[in-house]
Every structure is written in structure tokens, then in C-alpha cells.
Amino acid sequence: MASGSEIFREAGFEMGTAIRPGATATRPTPSPEPALPRPPAGVNRVRVSLLPYALITPAAAVILGVLAFPLGMLVWLSFQHYGLRQLIAHQGDWVGLNNYATLLADPTFQHVVLVSLLFTVANVGLTLVLSTLIALLLLKVSTPVRVLLGSGLVFVWATPVIVAIDVWQWMFDYEFGVVNYLLTQLRFGDFIHHNWFEHPLQGFGVITVVVVWGAIPFVAITLFAALTQVPQDILEAAEVDGADPWQIFWRVTAPLLRPIFLIVTSLSTIWDFQVFNQVYVLLNARPSQDYFTIAVYSYRESFGVTQYGLGAAIAVVMVLVLVVVTFFYVRQTLETADLELAR
Amino acid sequence: MRPRKFLVAAVGMAAALIATACGTGGNTPAAAETGPLTIWLMNGSAPQSVIDGVNTDFKAKHPNVTVNVEIQQWGDVGTKLDTAFAGSTPPDVMELGNTLVAKYAAAGALQDITSKKAGYENSSTWLQSLTDSCTLGGKLYCVPYYAGSRAVIYRTDQFTAAGVQPPDSLDGLLTVGKKLMAANSSDPNYSALYFPGKYWYAALPFIWDAGGDIATNSGGKWQGSLNSTSSQQGLTTLNTLVTSLSKADKTGDEAKQDAAFAQGHIGMIIANGWEVGVILDPKAGDPTLKDKLGVFPIPSHVAGQTAPVFLGGSDLGIAAKSKNKTLANEWVGMLEGQKHMSEMATTGGVIPNTTSLLSLGTGLNATFYAAAKNSRFVPNSPNWASVENANTIPDMLVSIFTGKATIADATKAASDKITTTLNGS
């Protein structure tokens, strides 16, 4: 994941701008002249202006091939009735917007979307709060402890998701799980044969633990990196002015980190909204309907009950929701870049 | 550990996209079939010795044809079969669960072998219910392979210690179970009858015995009937048994039940004949239990009678897109014929595809063979596979056993869904 360090760098630039006292309030009018020197007019100019396009052609071709084409196929598929017969004949039946109409009228789908949204809000919220706390902690502890904590985070990050889910599954196992054993030994009650997946709320609790656990390292390390860029003199100035740590965080640090927060929130939302493995694998590939998130539902409709068209329509809806979130992400990234240019 | 479906999902998604992109594959005439022949068999169906035997016989006739037998897992087979059939070179022969055949036959994935039926050994004495599962619209789309029916496997030593005999009625089953629970009350993990919540194959006998059914067909229209009074009554009986006698995971499935049984802490499980082999397996189970196992049929609510059981089993289908249909037919004919089917029954512990071999069921197997004679089947509809893949019945059972929904509500919801799915296009 290369984006981590990039984000950090962008944030670093941005903070460099924002931390100047009163920078946002009395920002000098950006000078209209562009920052980059213009090439001289003439033949050269044409050559130079073509070069960037030539440079992005390979990347664009790859993106078109692996992203735009499948996405186009998905949309195309969502307008068709595509069952097993159609799959074998390689020929779908065009049904227009029927699949979408079916979805709108489907109470299961409404429930699934609601569950996915609530799940996303809870997971993103928890991820951000816990990651921020860990990032602040990393800032305060001594170097050896920081190295230890940091390595721990990196290990979590490096664990393949399936391996991690298997381990969590064993820990929460109904018969042999260490969680039930420990809770009983610690006298929290009788957890022998406690089934964590009997009630969806508890089950989603476990899924949340697994998802948040896996999401914290990236967010915490990113926030920690951003925190190290907050200049000490501002914090000291605030302290001299009589601000307590709570005020310093909310009035000084948090506003400075706002762009970073926006970016990790967008990314987390994108990841958590399309959660699949943690639900599917944790529940032995046979999740009951209570546990359907939008990605699981799409998979079940496509590959479970062989309604590939309907499954595709669900996936398209999911993509549309994510496009909205991505919009904020992209806008923030562009704004950051603009500020940088305006500086 | 269960197979991991998501990998298949990724591959399947890719395959589906590629399949759609690359147009129709060839149905080239079988001028000179040279193989290689690809065969998909399911995990736990034919013992390796049977596969080797068939391949040796086949090799003797066709020394230049390579045969690849690949073993598939039940857990993710639906997705795998869909994508395999969609490709232009599917495996030539595929073992299909008998509840799945109708779906693939209706979609045109399987070769119509009606005209070849007489050429198969024992085809006049094939088990009727297996032949039915291969038949759609009067045409034959697969060859019956083997059957399986469930009965209760129990620990004779525990029964002796608790002073109980195998019961001959459902009431008796509850009484015996309670005595076992009492005799083992010091063991908090003990289940007199170990019944995982999603084990729907084992739940069907209770529904059928009470006079209920999954769905009924009148005039070509399906009507779900799990919410009928009889079905509900059967589920009430089962719920009482599970609540009083089982410590198994109410949201789990039966995949691990043999391993659990071999570890002890369990008096009875409802299982297939071949599962005895898993229980006694030196790696997965415990061979020392050999003389401590007994089998009795699932009893009926009427004393002295047995409950109808689900007739599971497998058929062998030949892909319509296969380029080696003649060779494939020949291989299938060898596996399903007298010689190798006898070995399937004796070493594999399954019920053979022909009534002429039913006498091979001896010892513990005799009870499983007998159970097959009073057996029922799921609605034979191309859409049934969708009901199965949507986990409708397991989800209903979990709701009932965990008390999340009343029997009335849970059965109503499931039944409505089954009606819709079966009548869907």
C-alpha cells in the first residue's frame, strides 16, 4: 500500500501551510501567475505537452483494462437476466432496469443496506477513535516502547487477512474458544458454550473487533506520522496561553490534522462498506441472512442462487455509494494540492 | 477446516467475465477422441482403490488416453460447477449431488443420455429415486452413482452404562436421551444427541414423519409447506430433542460432527453410513471405538416404525460441452458397473446404485441400507438448488433452535421464500 506515505507527504505539505498563525483566516490572495515556468512558444511546446500524455498512457491502459472494462461489464450485466442457462449459453436476456426495480422493492435489500451503513459508521468511528488514541500514545512514549508498539502494529498489518480471521475464529469458537474460557475464568459469568454468533448484534460485535483490529495499524501509523509534523512551538504557545491538553488537542492538533482525518475516514469508509471476508470466512462461508452486508448479499445472489444480473445490480449500487465517498476523498486530495500550489 | 469460498468467488468472477467475453466455445464432433479425460469426483465418494481400479481397466482399453481424476469439496461445489459448466472446456464427467442435477439439466449443461441408457450395466435395476433425480422432462441426464441415507449412530458402551436400549419411537428417543444426559451429568460438554443447528438433512425426517413436507406441487405450481400444521409439529418435536439433548453449536453445521463424536462427550449422532469410516479413521477419528458403535434407524412417532429419511446421493453427469463424450461415457460405465460398484459398497460404505447389490449391506451398514427403503426426496425442480444455496432451511432451523423466532414465524418466512424461489424463472 503505497498510498500511506503519499498521504503523509501531502498532509505534511498542507500542514506546513496551515500552521502559519492565521494562515487560513488571512490567507494572502494567491498570485495569479502559475508556479511552473511556461515553456517557450513554438514547436517545443507541442512536444512537451504531448509527453505527459505519453507517460500516462501505460497506466491509463492498465486502469482501463483492469478497472473500467470489468466495471463496464458489471453495469452491462446488471441490465440483464443472467441465470445459469444464460451463463452456459454466454448470452443474457436484456431486462432493462428490472433488476433495479426488484431491488428497490426487496425488503431484504433495504435491510442489508441499512446493516451495511450502520456497520460502516460503527467500524469507521471505532477505528478512528482507537487509532487516534494509539497515535497520541506513540507520540508520548519512550523510543524503545514506540519501536515495540510500532512493530506490533506492523505485524498486525502484515498478517494475511485470512490467517487473521482463522485465528479470531478459533478464539471465539463455541466449544474450544479461548475467549469463552478466559471470560469464565475471570468470573465475568458462565461463558462455557457461549455462542457469539447466535445473536447478530454480538456476532457483528465480533466481526467489528476483527475488522477494527485489522484497520487500526494503517490509520494509527498514518495519524502518528501526521502528529509528528505538528510543530512543537505552536503546542507550547497554546500551553503558555493556558490551554489544557484536551483543549490543545481539539483546538490546535485536530484542526491541523483535519485533511488527514478526512482522508483516512474516506478510505476506512470505502474499506468497511464493502467488508466481505471478515463476515464470510468468520461464518464458515454460510452466513445467515442476519449477517448479510451488501457485498455478501451481492455474492449470494450471484454465486449462491445464480442470479448474476441481480447480483451485478447490487454491486453497482455498492459502487455508486462508494463513488460518493470517493468524491470527498478526491476533493480533499485536490484541495490539498491546490493549497500547496497557492502557497 | 471448511473450504474457502471467496477464492472461488474471485476466480469465478474472473471466469464469468472471461466466459462472457470470449464467446461460445466449440462443440467439436468426437471424430478422434484422444483425451485427456477430466473427471470431477466429490470428496469422500469413491475410495482411492476404486478410482485406481477403474483407471486401470480404462487404461487397458485406451492406453493412450490420460485420465485426470480431481477431487472436489462439497462446501463450495455449487459455485465451482457453475463456472466450470460456463467455460468452454468443462470437465468431461462430473459427480453431482442428486439435488443439483435438475438445475444443470434444465440449463442445458448436461448431455442427454437417454439413448445410451440400455448400454449401462444394471440400468434396469437402478435405484428408482436416483434415476428420478437424473430425469427431467422424460429425458435422462445422468447416471445414478450411489445413495446415502441417514440413521442414528450411537455408543453402545454409553447405552449400557446408562441402562438404555435403542428406542423404537420418537418419545422413546427423548426418554433414552434424557437418561443418557442424567448418567453423564458430570460432563458439561455431554450431548446425548449431538445436533448442529444447520443440519437440515437430519431435520427433514422429523418433518416428514409428522406428515409435513418442504413443498407440494399441484398443476405445475409449487407451494411451500414447511408452515403446515404437520411440518410445524415435526419441528416442535425436533426442537424439544435439540433443546434437551444437544450441546452442539446451534448455528453450526454438521461438517465436524464425526470428529466430535470420535472425541467422546456424545451419545448419538444422525449420520450417513460412510461416516462410520470417518469416526474410526486413525487420523480424523478414533479406531478404538470399533466395537463400541451401534446403529438404529431414526424412529417414527408411531412406535415400531421408522421415520422417512432424506435419500442423499450422487449422480454422474457428462458435460454437454465435453469433447470426449464417448470416452467419458465409457469411463462412467466402468465406475457405475457391477464390478466397481460392489467395491464402492463394501469398502466405500455407500448404498450402491442398483437394487441387485443391496444384499451387500451387512453389519452396521444393513441399517443404513434398510433406511433407504423408506426414503424421500426434496422437490425435484431446477430451482431447488437455489433454495439450497440460499440456506433457507438451515437459517430457519437456526432461528427456531436459538429462539430468535417462533416456529410459526420461522416456518412461514422460510415457506414463503421457498414458494417464490421454486416458482421463479
Strand content of chain A: under 5%
Q: What is the CATH topology assignment of one domain in chain A?
A: MetI-like fold
Which outline of chain B best applies?
A: globular
Overall helicity of chain A: over 70%
Mean pLDDT of chain B: 88
Number of helices of chain A: 14
Please give the count of helices of chain B: 17
Distance between the termini of chain B: 35 Å
- Spatial order of strands in the largest sheet of chain B: 2-1-3-14-6-15
The major β-sheet of chain B equals: 6 strands, mixed
Fraction in helix of chain B: 40-55%
List the helices and strands and how they pair.
The complex is a heterodimer of chains A (about 350) and B (about 425).
Chain A: H1 3-18, H2 43-78, E1 80-81, H3 84-89, E2 93-94, H4 98-104, H5 107-140, H6 143-158, H7 161-171, H8 178-185, H9 200-228, H10 232-240, H11 245-273, H12 277-282, H13 294-304, H14 308-342
Antiparallel strand pairs in A: 1-2
Helix pairs in contact in A: 1-9, 1-11, 1-14, 2-14, 4-14, 5-9, 5-11, 6-9, 9-11, 10-11, 11-14, 13-14
Chain B: H1 5-21, E1 37-42, H2 48-61, E2 67-72, H3 77-86, E3 93-97, H4 101-106, H5 128-134, E4 135-136, E5 139-140, E6 142-148, E7 150-155, H6 156-162, H7 170-183, E8 191-194, H8 200-209, E9 215-218, E10 221-224, H9 229-245, H10 257-262, E11 266-272, H11 275-280, E12 293-296, E13 309-310, E14 312-318, H12 325-336, H13 338-348, E15 351-352, H14 364-373, E16 375-376, H15 384-389, H16 392-401, H17 407-423
Parallel strand pairs in B: 1-2, 1-3, 8-11, 13-16
Antiparallel strand pairs in B: 3-14, 4-5, 6-14, 6-15, 7-11, 7-12, 9-10
